Amino acid sequence: MASSIPRPRTIMKSSIIAINPSFPFLHFLPPSPLTALLFSPRKNPKSLHLCTNFSTTLLLFSLSLLFSITFLLGIFLLGFLRSYQNSPLPCSVSSSPEFFAASLSSMSSSSLLDKEEGVPRLSYSAMVPLPAHGLSGNLSEPEREFWQQPDGEGYRPCLDFSIGYRKASAEISKEKKRYLMVVASGGLNQQRNQIVDAVVIARILEASLVLPILQVNLIWGDESEFSDIFDVEHFKKTLQADVRVVSTIPSSHLMLRQPIHSKIPRDITPNWIHSRFFNQLNKDGLLILKGLDSKLTKNLPPDLQKLKCKVAFHALRFAAPIRELGEQLAKRMWIEGPYIALHLRLEKDVWVRTGCQTGLGPEFDRVIAKVRESEPEFLTGSLNMSHTQRKLAGLCPLNALEMARFLKALGAPKSTRIYNAGGEPFGGSRAMQPLISEYPNLVTKEMLARQGELARFANKSSALAAIDYIVCLSSDVFVPSHGGNMGRALQGHRAYVGHRKFIKPNKRAMLPFFEDTTISEAELSSVVKELHAKSLGQPELRNYRRERDVIAYPVPECLCQKP
């Protein structure tokens, strides 16, 4: 390929520089002996009078060289100042969510690397959504209220690590003696949580991290590897100042009988991790952990909380094929106007695990009960609660009818375009009919994708979930029907990129009103709006509550506020 590239006709070289005269910037240089010397035709040395006016020529040459350098420096400084004034800052003074979304959307999601070190700049490495739509057109007051984005209160990403953390990074990022390997299980977002924790544990143990192994999912049978879902090189480069990430274990560290540590207690602290594993790791050189889900304490030191945000919102970028298709589908939704993304949890395994009734009638409920009896280990809800008690306690996902009533009560227009994330609902079209009857403009990725676009992701549940994640991130409003890992991940991610509207149904408080047949639609709407007035995606402090993960509540560790 290199031989086919045409070479410039004339390139003048000196012992210090090589300049291509076709380079357009050089045409702006003022005429001088320097440019004349570089670009004039060669002459016969014998015809030159070397000693004639040599001192004068040398003086003119020096002055022209000085003038040219000053001119170039001036242009450079002028361009730098302009770019500096227009560049997005980590903590902007603007509190407008629209401004913040627009400024982030102007950043390319591909890594813009530092020219010298090849390190992705954090302000450019985050996965950002398309900008929220402005409020325009003939909207009623309820519709305007529904699409209104929450006040971000001036919070912006601020991953300013301490001096002590940065000093320690110099050694930790070059570690080649200790290696940590982690096996991540579950669905996509459950695995993402474990990968985030794996990076933190590697940092605590001052170890290199081997790319995590994604365990084959027993429910969906997905055999995807890390590189199938995530951008490996971006992951490594983004974290290279924090933890050294390698693709494989060195042959010198392979052992025939390496133990796998899977019995890890909950709420483990950095001190516990260090005292339990560091000496062994220092001796063996390799530590393998499995079963990390929700084991690391939520209350970590500030630097490690920032590291979690850096991994979740910057380093864990999806692989290019997933990212490209997800962004295409998001654009197809976005170009038609504002849209809602729902994460409806109506899959068969969800009804089995929650111990809830489907709302589709006795025939479908008997199918779920039979599976639950044959595989009781899948049941995650309280065993001593009835179906009704589970539902009123907020432990069941909203079904299609309940979601339709919820959106209607909040003021969502009937013409609203809705993207439905999630798997195939148990009961098929019958399960979705109540929602489609109220909101007919409901689509899925299968409906949005063109012929053949999803073919490469057949039977790849994690890749399909990642595509859903990207489309949901760009939605104007996101509503999960049942919390879960994806709901929490999007809650934090939407907060991190400008506090995009996120409505988490208060099922425990709301469902008794749904059961009340005497209440009018207007009264129900008033009640539902009042119940959710303070949970629309506004900044919410984590407040060191034990159950609150910084990934879902990035304020105040990962988001700063400036007047």
UniProtKB/TrEMBL annotation:
It is found in: Membrane. It comes from the Eukaryota. GO terms for cellular component: cytoplasm; membrane. Keywords: Carbohydrate metabolism, Fucose metabolism, Glycoprotein, Glycosyltransferase, Membrane, Signal-anchor, Transferase, Transmembrane, Transmembrane helix. GO terms for molecular function: glycosyltransferase activity. The chain crosses the membrane at residues 59-81. It is a single-pass type II membrane protein. One of its GO terms (biological process) is fucose metabolic process. Pathway: Glycan metabolism. Belongs to the glycosyltransferase GT106 family. This is O-fucosyltransferase family protein. It comes from Cannabis sativa.
